[in-house]
Amino acid sequence: MGNEFTHFDGEGNARMVDVSTKAETVRRATAAGRITMSADAFAMVRQGRMKKGDVLGVARIGAIMAAKKVDGLIPLCHPLAITSVDVEFSLLDDRHAIDIRATVGITGKTGVEMEALTAVAVAALTIYDMCKAVDKGMVISDIRLLRKSGGKSGDYVGSPGL
To answer: Of residues 54, 129, 135, 155, which has the active-site annotation?
Structure first.
């Protein structure tokens, strides 16, 4: 198959890839991203003073929920029985930023890259939503795949970036 786009048939029509003959393997994907905000908003998140509540706790739940619903958000994604989702936050005091990392696991016939990326995006959007009363100028950036393992295409390790 090479580097063909698999979501198109021979006539260029969109299709959902048939994975019925693929072997089930253990697959994992890790994605990352960042949200940068004002010093005031960052301090409120760090100190747990945001009026809407525990920003990072809610963002973690949002990320997990999003990873489980990717097939309803991204056209042509398969519904997956995800086996694990881990979400981590790192607070960067010098940048007034929060780094987000999500790792998703499955034993299945297709990868979980989209689930990990979506988890990061929704975590960042949740943080934005919970903090927007204090800072509407927050910037969500650098959402990317860090690594993936399993499946026919093997392992991928991207640039750690920032």
So the answer is: 129
16, 104, 134, 137 from 148: Cα distances, Å: 21, 9, 36, 32
CA geometry: angle 7, 78, 85, nearest 5 deg: 125
129 is catalytic: yes
Q: With beta carbons less than 8 A apart as the criterion, state whether 29 and 113 touch.
A: yes
- 11-21 core/surface letters (b: 16 or more CB in 10 A; e: else): eeeeeeeeeee
What does the radius of gyration of the chain's CA atoms come to, in whole angstroms? Answer: 18
- For residue 24, what are the contacts with CB-CB under 8 A and spacing of at least 6? 107, 108, 109
pLDDT in tens, the chain (162 residues): 455 667 777 788 888 888 888 889 999 999 999 999 999 999 999 999 999 999 999 999 999 999 999 999 999 899 999 999 999 999 999 999 999 999 999 999 999 999 999 999 999 999 999 999 999 999 999 999 999 999 888 899 997 665
pTM of the predicted model as reported, rounded to 2 decimal places? 0.91
Dist CA 158 CA 9 (whole Å): 29
